[in-house]
Amino acid sequence: MSERNRGFSPDFLTELFQNPLDPGYADAAARRARTGKPARPGWSVGPITLVVVLLLGFLCAVAYRQTMAEEPGRAQARSGLVEQIKQRQGETDNLSVRADQLREEVNRQREAALGGSQAARLRDLEARAGLGRVRGDGVVVRLADGPAGGESLSGAKVGPARVLYSDLQGVANDLWSAGAEAIAINGQRLTATSTIRSAGEAILVDFRPVTGPYEVSAIGPGSMRRTYEGSRSALTMRRVSQENGLSFGVRDEDGLTLPAAPEPRLRYAEPAVSPSVSPSGGDESSDSSTSPSPSGGGR
C-alpha cells in the first residue's frame, strides 16, 4: 500500500484498523525486492566498532585476572584479622576472669576489715547496685531468631525473623516493672548505667556482644512471672512469634545465680573555682556571685 493512499479520515480508529502497518514496512519490502539483499536494522558493525569491542573485552579479561590474582592475598589478610580478633577476645576473657578473682579477694579483705553488720550491709548494697553476685529464684525469658524464611511475592528470599536490641530492652524494662531485683542477659549483669544497643547485626550489652539464643534471667518475687506475662513486651513477643516464627518463652527457674557487673566508670561533679578578689582595692565585703557547679549547687 503506497503512502499517498494512506490518509487520516475523520474516523481515526477505523482508519487505524484498516491500515495497521506503517509505510516504512512497505518501503523496506520494496527495497529488499529491488536489491535482493535483506534490509539492515539501521546500523552496521564497522571496523572501529569491532576494535572497540575487542579492546573492552581485553580490558575486562585483564581486570578479571588481576582480581583473581589478588584474591589469595585478601583471603590471607582476612584470616589474619579473624585470628587477631579471636586472640583479643581470648585475652579479654582471661582478663575478665582475673578481674573477678581480684574482686573476690578485695571483698574478702574488706569484709575482714569491716566486721559483721557493716559487711552484711555492704553486700546488700552491692547486690542492689549490681556489683555483687546474687542467687535466688526467678524467671528466665528466652528469645531466639526464627527459622529461615521462604520467598516473598517478588520471588526474593526472605530472611529469618531476628531478635532486635529493642526487644531485649522491652523485656528487661518490663521485668524491672514486674518487681525484678537483679537481671542479666546471657550472663551480662544489668545495672542503672547499662546499655543495650546494636552495632550492625550484633547486639551489645554494656558494649559486649551477645549472640542468640538470648536468655534474660531475673531474680524477684514469686508473682513476677504472672505480672510479666501481662506486660506489653510479653504480649508483643507472643504475637510476633505466632506471625513470624520467632522463638519466645517464659519459664520459672529455681536457684538462679547472676554474676556481678564490672565496676562502672562514674563521673563526679566538682565545685566551680571561686573567682579571685580583684586587686583594684574595692570593698572586700561587697557581694560576689559564683557560677553554679554542673550539678546545680556549689554556692
TrEMBL record:
| Residues that span the membrane, as ranges | 43-64
Annotated region (Disordered), positions in chain: 74-94, 246-299
**Low complexity compositional bias: what residue ranges?**
269-299
Identify the Pfam families for this entry. Answer: DUF881
Sorted alphabetically, which keywords does the UniProt record give? Answer: Membrane, Transmembrane, Transmembrane helix
Record GO cellular component, one term: plasma membrane
Which PANTHER family does this one have? UPF0749 PROTEIN RV1823, UPF0749 PROTEIN RV1825
Q: Which family does it belong to?
A: Belongs to the UPF0749 family.
Q: What is this protein called?
A: DUF881 domain-containing protein
Species of the source: Micromonospora craniellae
